[in-house]
Design brief:
By secondary structure, the chain is α/β, with parallel strands linked by helices. It folds into 3 domains: 112 residues, no CATH class; 153 residues, Beta Barrel (L,D-transpeptidase catalytic domain-like), CATH 2.40.440.10; 119 residues, Nuclear Transport Factor 2, Chain: A. A 6-stranded mixed sheet has the order 3-16-17-18-19-15. Helix 2 packs antiparallel against helix 3 and helix 3 runs antiparallel to helix 4.
């Protein structure tokens, strides 16, 4: 009996799998086994070794766990058909729509390629999770290229890998710029609310979690659109192809329910990247320390009341919501002229590096400002950009 071409196709894909690791030579080796990928991988091994009955048994077990998993149904159909005739393609049902087969082929490739090339361990972290504040329990990083979502736990400021999940994203890819472009945004976002299945309807599965796209930086870049959510799938669908949404990040209902237990409204960051860069913890600590030092210098120079020293921390492209650098500087000089002393305390600081082309970090903290004639507390967000080989503030406002 001939082997299925499915195995040949996938093995070629695995051979091309790659992981981008900044500052590291060795690939991480430990990972979670959540979802159907481990069993899909075992099915592939059975097919490759021409043990088709064993592969069929594994596939039927998979369908018992995930009865609406269309990809498993297709594999089962091929395995049954292989008993009576040679199989030369993936998906051999005579009445199967070609576009549906393409979707399922892309899904199995995405799932198994990510499974075989995982890079999430105790030794490496996504470059973007520079600092999580004490009250922020988890962080999410999405890799659209690999159709994967990674969940990290805050372990005293150090991100620890928890689990990863297959996801679908925009039909036309990532880097959203405008309303209706069917792309998923890339950047640093936060979960803003929770929508129940009753409120959003069956299409969104077991619920939805909107994120704050467009954020302050998106707006400054002229990006628009709305309604970008993390959400589930219809009740008759286990999962969707890798590129299937109008811009949202879509998980199976089982995975969304698991993920939802770890989401904090208004706190959990969702960092969406085209392709994740991974750092060793030494390199991560070095980047983190450099930016932490710059933020403390900014705080100290503000306390000094030396406006010129303070303004050196601001980019020439700086803006608040309603001021450019010149207007901001004029206001600071006027305000500081009435101060005898200033004390600034920062707490609950988070730092998340933007995954875009520019070297940009989103910094959020609680600020306690005290002076001889004014006391003020606020939650502030800054965007720090690398300019002239140093970090400078390019945006500042209330969070």
């Amino acid at each position: 009996m001939r082997r299925l071409a499915l195995a040949v196709v996938l093995i070629a894909v695995f051979a091309a799998g790659s992981v981008v690791i900044a500052g590291a030579n060795n690939r991480p080796t430990t990972f979670s086994d959540s979802g159907p990928e481990p069993q899909l991988s075992r099915i592939l091994v059975e097919i490759e070794n021409n043990r088709l009955d064993a592969a069929l048994g594994q596939t039927e077990e998979l369908l018992q766990r995930y009865p609406t998993f269309r990809l498993a149904h297709l594999i089962k159909g091929d395995l049954l058909l292989a008993r009576s005739m040679p199989i030369s393609t993936f998906g051999n049902a005579s009445n199967a729509p070609p576009e549906k087969l393409t979707d399922l082929r892309e899904e199995v490739i995405a799932r198994l390629k990510a499974y075989r090339s995982r890079a999430t361990t105790a030794d490496y972290v996504p470059r973007y999770l520079l600092q999580m504040p004490p009250g922020q329990e988890h962080a999410i990083v999405v890799d659209t290229q690999k159709s994967r979502l990674y969940l990290y736990k805050n372990d005293n400021g150090r991100p620890r890998f928890v689990a990863d999940y297959y996801i679908s994203h925009g039909k036309l890819g990532a880097d959203k710029t405008r309303e209706g472009d069917k792309k998923t945004p890339t950047g640093v976002y936060h979960v803003t609310s929770s929508l129940s299945p009753q409120k959003v309807g069956d299409f969104y599965g077991s619920g939805a979690f909107p994120i704050n796209y467009p954020n302050e930086w998106d707006k400054r870049q002229g990006r628009n659109g709305h309604g970008i959510w993390l959400h589930g799938t219809p009740s008759d669908t286990y999962s969707r192809p890798p590129k299937a949404s109008d811009g949202c990040v879509v998980l199976s209902n089982v995975d969304l329910d698991s993920l939802a237990k770890n989401l904090q409204i208004g706190l959990t960051p969702v960092i969406i990247s085209n392709s994740i860069e991974w750092l060793s913890f030494d390199d991560w600590q070095s980047e983190r320390s450099t930016l932490t030092k710059k933020i403390d210098e900014w705080r100290s120079d503000w306390e000094s009341k030396d406006v010129n020293r303070y303004l050196k921390h601001y980019s020439t492209k700086f803006r608040t919501n309603d001021q450019n650098l010149e207007q901001f500087a004029q206001q600071k000089r006027k305000v500081n002229g009435s101060k005898e002393w200033i004390k600034i305390k920062l707490s609950n600081t988070s730092m998340f590096r933007d995954p875009g082309k520019e070297e940009l970090v989103v910094v959020t903290f609680e600020q306690d400002y005290q002076s001889n004639n004014l006391n003020n507390q606020m939650k502030k967000r800054q965007y720090w950009i690398r300019e002239d080989s140093t970090w400078k503030i390019v945006f500042e406002g209330a969070a």
